[in-house]
Specification:
The complex is a heterodimer. Chain A is of the alpha/beta class. Chain A has one domain: TIM Barrel (Alpha-Beta Barrel), CATH 3.20.20. An eight-stranded mixed sheet of chain A has the order 2-1-8-7-6-5-4-3. The radius of gyration of chain A is 19 Å and the shape is globular. By secondary structure, chain B is α+β, with helices and mostly antiparallel strands. In chain B, a hairpin with a 4-residue loop joins strand 1 and strand 2. The radius of gyration of chain B is 23 Å and the shape is globular. The N and C termini of chain B lie far apart (66 Å). The chains are: A alpha/beta, B alpha+beta.
Chain lengths: 183, 562
């Protein structure tokens, strides 16, 4: 069990993430007991079998950077959790995937960043609609994770609209023209 | 120029605090080298050959005198007494200590400056015409649009970790001085048949290892939609640009792989969802941003008789006026280019004293503002004709009045192997050796308009592909050699130069340029510039001349040793 940041708070987490090892088949891989987030391929291969678990709130799906979120468009009301994997923190595809899930597809459930999730990306991740940030197990000590919460407030009034604040600054706040002084 | 409001200032202040904390954690060992790298790069901080290099953003080249004095102070206090203007209008310092960078950023924030996104795989500083707002051939002032794009792209959460760097340039004049065709997105302000304002959008230009001229993906995007359209482009790129190979990760490679029609189709599909969304611009927002530029209000003045008289009687002044003074759209005013290409200095370098002195010139003659240029010079946008003589004398006193703008010695050069860890070869000594060879001003005037661009490696920071003569540093078995291209050009008819043949040793370069110039002089027709002659007679004639004269030199040398 590891600690995650959920909606701006640190809490313990009992979801496990299933990753296919070499030789594992999506259609036959054994699922761990308890709450589990499975790869898209597993969900697609065994949707009928897994649907009840998803509806019961104990099974979610994760997307890799090259997987189109439209592939789960029909499952959004069933899935309690969708995770997006960051194989490397510098791989920014997940930000667009999250944005599409929230804005284009209207997903309202838990959206979780998994993989190489670092505190210096927290601000951007939350802006793109992630509600849960799950750094790799052991990446941060409890004290470091607490300190990392500050990163969520790095910028108080960002310029552009994003998932968290859809309107850009010029629509959110009155910004003043410059009063011309006589030349 | 643009004056920050409280929100602009707060974002920059918050960035200073954020980066100070990131640097502290790095120095304390909490952040690994790999984790810190993109964070420091997104603050313009490279680890270079000798020391970190800090690149400071100069949004679309606009600077005021207070900022110049701060840059002078930084050069004096944290560097070795100078700074360098880059081909993307930014300013680099080559010697700051990492530990000092948070303090430098704090000093910058106090004068509305920063180093945000001057490097890294994100949207970089937006560049534009250094004569924006004053050029006689301008139809729309690009600066408010640049500022709107700057704000939109600053810490854009979705586009902070793109496959590769991303550069945007905006042009609003008849002659493109922003080189929009070699940018990831080139925006051309245009009007449609109904007279409405919008943008012609080019995508996929860029130099580097795979130089490509950008292609049009939209003939007209209404101005209200430009952020939505850019977001669509960036999203397609972020999701589908290659991430397996840094050399194939720029958007130009994606555009080439998909083909322009398919790329444009994907962008249109994305744009259809974003059109008229919250990022749609309003007239009020454009007017607000434009109002914050606080431009001087200029009324036409009588043409200045003293200026004209001096032109007739003072040859040195007239030479400077001919090369370094440009037409202004208001009568009685002119724009002036201060040359950062005197003999024996690295192109684009300014000393701490010169930063201060340029600030004084700006205050005295140019309403307190200057612009940095893509050609690595400084522009005073609005100067009264009546002040030109005094300005010339003052600029001369500080070594910034070399009358060589657009001439052979006005060389664009990257810092090269003297400073840059990426370079294969030195650039600055080559520029200086060429300047030494062509030290006769009358001959330079006779040669006329010509652009020589030098890059120390194929990353092409010196934009060698689009120089009339391009020089590229290459490594040959551990030795520095130089490959020469001719026929490249920037502007409306941007084109990539062609390689003339095998590369040359550093010591040969002045002779090579001499052969190229001699061939031009022998072949040119009336009024023809170097580039026009190259286009008319073809590369072959120049190539033959260069290598024949090279062989002759080598034979003469061998004969002398017999």
């Amino acid at each position: 069990m590891s600690d995650i940041i959920k909606n701006g708070r640190i809490q313990a987490d009992d979801w496990s993430v299933l990753r296919l090892a070499e030789g594992d088949q999506a259609a036959t891989v054994a699922l761990p007991a308890g709450r589990v987030i499975v790869p898209l391929a597993v969900w697609q291969a065994r949707r009928d079998e897994l649907r009840a678990k998803a509806e019961a709130g104990v099974l979610g799906v994760w997307l890799a950077g090259d997987e189109d979120p439209a592939q789960v468009a029909g499952d959004l009301s069933v899935l309690p959790v969708i995770a997006v994997d960051f194989p490397k923190f510098a791989d920014g595809r997940g930000y667009s995937i999250a944005t599409l899930l929230r804005t284009r597809l209207g997903y309202g459930g838990e959206l979780r960043a998994i993989g190489d999730v670092l505190r210096d990306q927290f601000f951007f991740l939350v802006r793109c609609g992630f509600s849960v940030l799950q750094p790799r197990e052991g990446k941060y000590s409890a004290a470091q994770l607490r300190a990392a919460l500050d990163s969520l407030q790095d910028f108080s009034e960002p310029y552009q609209g994003a998932v968290d604040r859809p309107e850009p600054l010029f629509r959110r706040q009155p910004r003043n023209p410059l009063r011309k002084e006589a030349a | 120029m643009y004056q920050y409001d409280e929100y602009d200032q707060r974002i920059v202040d918050e960035r200073v605090a954020q980066f100070a904390d990131q640097t502290r954690r790095y120095l304390a060992g909490e952040l690994s080298e790999d984790e810190f790298r993109p964070l420091r790069l997104q603050n313009g901080l490279y680890i270079q050959r000798h020391a970190p290099m800090l690149r400071i953003a100069v949004p679309y080249g606009n600077l005021n005198s207070k900022q110049l004095r701060t840059l002078g102070h930084i050069a004096r206090t944290y560097d070795r007494g100078y700074g360098h203007i880059t081909t993307r209008q930014n300013i680099q310092f080559n010697w700051p200590r990492l530990e000092d960078v948070p303090e430098i950023l704090d000093l910058l924030a106090r004068v509305q400056m920063h180093a945000i996104q001057t490097s890294g795989n994100c949207i970089r500083n937006v560049t534009s015409d250094p004569f924006a707002g004053v050029a006689a051939d301008e139809h729309v002032d690009p600066r408010p649009w640049c500022e709107i794009l700057r704000q939109w792209s600053t810490f854009h959460p979705e586009f902070a970790f793109l496959p590769r760097k991303f550069k945007i340039a905006v042009n609003g004049a008849k002659e493109d001085r922003a080189v929009i065709q070699i940018h990831d997105i080139g925006l051309d302000l245009v009007r449609n048949a109904a007279g409405e304002l919008g943008f012609r959008v080019l995508v996929g230009g860029g130099l580097g290892r795979t130089p490509i001229i950008g292609e049009e993906v939209a003939a007209f995007v209404p101005w209200q939609q430009i952020l939505n359209y850019c977001e669509a482009i960036l999203r397609v790129y972020n999701l589908h640009g290659r991430r397996d190979n840094a050399y194939k990760a720029r958007i130009k490679i994606l555009v080439k792989a998909l083909g322009v029609p398919e790329f444009a189709r994907q962008v249109e599909e994305e744009f259809a969802h974003l059109k008229d969304g919250p990022s749609t611009l309003t007239q009020a927002e454009i007017e607000r941003v434009a109002s914050r530029f606080n431009d001087p209000v200029l009324s036409p003045l009588e043409q200045d008789a003293g200026y004209r008289a001096r032109l007739a009687e003072d040859k040195a002044f007239a030479a400077w006026a001919r090369r370094n003074v440009r037409e202004h759209r208001v009568q009685g005013y002119a724009s002036v280019v201060l040359s950062l290409k005197p003999y024996g200095v690295a192109p684009g370098d300014l000393s701490a004293e010169q930063f201060d002195a340029v600030a004084d010139l700006a205050d005295r003659y140019a309403f307190g503002e200057v612009r940095s240029t893509h050609e690595q010079n400084i522009v005073l946008a609005s100067v009264r004709e009546a002040d030109l003589v005094a300005l010339w004398q003052d600029a001369r006193a500080i070594g910034l009045a070399t009358p060589n703008i657009g001439l052979l010695t006005d060389i664009i050069s990257c810092p090269g192997g003297d400073f840059c860890a990426l370079a294969n070869a030195k650039s600055i000594p080559i520029a200086n050796a060429i300047q030494d060879r062509f030290d006769d001003l009358d001959y330079l005037f006779d040669i006329g308009d010509i652009e020589i661009n030098i890059s120390g490696c194929m990353n092409a920071c010196g934009h060698h592909h689009v120089g009339h003569i391009g020089i590229l540093g290459v490594d040959k078995n551990g030795e520095e050699f130089y490959q020469v291209t001719i026929g490249g050009r920037q502007g409306n008819d941007a084109a990539l130069g062609k390689v003339i043949g095998p590369s040359f040793a550093a010591a040969e370069m002045p002779d090579v340029i001499t052969s190229l110039i001699d061939n031009y002089i022998d072949n040119r027709q009336d009024g023809e510039r170097f580039i026009d002659t190259v286009r008319r007679v073809g590369v072959e004639s120049f190539k033959t001349r260069v290598y024949a004269e090279r062989s002759a030199r080598q034979e003469a040398k061998e004969a002398a040793h017999v």
